[in-house]
Design brief:
- The chain is an alpha/beta fold.
- It is about 35% helix and about 15% strand.
- A 6-stranded parallel β-sheet has the order 2-1-3-4-5-10, sandwiched between helices.
- β3, α3 and β4 form a beta-alpha-beta unit.
- α2 packs parallel to α3, α3 runs parallel beside α4 and α5 crosses α7.
- The protein is globular and about 55 Å long.
């Protein structure tokens, strides 16, 4: 057996390493041959444009994975300036530095760039029409990347959940332990996506970037669409099998019965065949993802 150390394949910078997508990138990249630098807001605050530029220029990565985002959909309605700063202006700054270095930028966007009026899954080139501040700022970030001249992959995804952070699955488990009756919206349809599957796909895509000449936009999400109510039922069915406390009744309600500050798309299913055919990745199996989260779930540490 040779003890000569193999050269690292690529130098990768992960911005936002403490978010749920950033932590999943850590899990999936940790056992690769890439040299990976993980930075949270403590090391690189993307809203400090000068510091961010200096740090990226100092690191000189081959790939920047931007896992930072302002994701508080309802809060964004009254916090537009902050959402714009993180989802648009900071992204524009990162893209400009990447254009200068000639490296790749992998950035994540959202199904909320669409208005939800379609009856068919949304393709990458379908018209965008975000209904809330969050979707508008994410779309502005996409457009800034496209006009920067950098080499990019923009990956729109949806309904992300994982073992980490605050997400629908962990919220359901917490509410289910506290209440006997829940009311969950049943007339918004989308595709839950397990964040570890997104990160796994990124690991598969990165070596193939050398074959790509220019930037592109992709959709990646779960392979089955459902409503939030159906997603909750699937979570509680598996939670029950794990002997976790679940509600006695989970009532379906219409969006109109649960008004929120931000308007959400009624239908935001994404068409993912382009990323599958270009890179050979498979869509997220979110039913398996639920089980994987439950396998490591600690009720004592549930997000409050």
């Amino acid at each position: 057996r040779s003890f000569i150390s193999r050269p690292k394949f690529m130098k990768i910078l992960v911005l936002g390493s403490k978010g749920q997508l950033g932590q999943c990138c850590y899990d999936q990249l940790e056992n690769t041959d890439h040299e990976v630098i993980y930075t949270s807001r403590d090391q690189i605050d993307v809203t400090d444009f000068d510091q961010t530029s200096r740090q990226i220029l100092k690191i000189v990565p081959d790939v920047v994975i931007n896992a930072t985002a302002y994701t508080a959909v309802d809060k964004a309605e009254n916090d537009r300036e902050k959402a714009e700063e993180i989802n648009h202006l900071a992204v524009e700054n990162i893209a400009n530095v990447c254009a200068l270095l000639g490296n790749w930028l992998i950035h994540f966007s959202t199904d909320y760039v669409f208005d939800g009026q379609s009856k068919l899954p949304y393709k990458e080139d379908d018209s965008t029409n975000p209904q809330g501040v969050y979707g508008v700022t994410k779309l502005n970030g996409e457009l800034a990347i496209r006009s920067s001249g950098c080499k990019f992959l923009i990956i729109r995804t949806a309904w992300i959940f994982s073992e980490y952070g605050n997400n629908f699955l962990r919220t359901m488990l917490r509410l289910g332990s506290e209440s006997d009756k829940l009311h969950i919206v049943s007339d918004q349809i989308g595709c839950p996506t397990y964040a570890q599957d997104i990160a796994r796909s990124i690991v598969k895509i990165i070596p193939q970037l050398k074959l790509k000449k220019e930037g592109d936009l992709y959709h990646y999400c779960g392979k089955q669409s459902c409503s939030w109510h159906e997603f909750a039922l699937a979570i509680f069915e598996k939670a029950k099998a794990c002997n976790l406390k679940i509600p006695r009744t989970i009532n379906p309600i219409e969006t109109s019965a649960y008004p929120t500050p931000a308007k959400r798309p009624a239908f935001s299913v994404l068409e993912c065949s382009k990323i599958e055919s270009d890179f050979g990745v498979t869509r997220s199996n979110w039913m398996d993802g639920i089980q994987r989260v439950l396998d490591v779930f600690d009720p004592q540490k549930a997000v409050r």
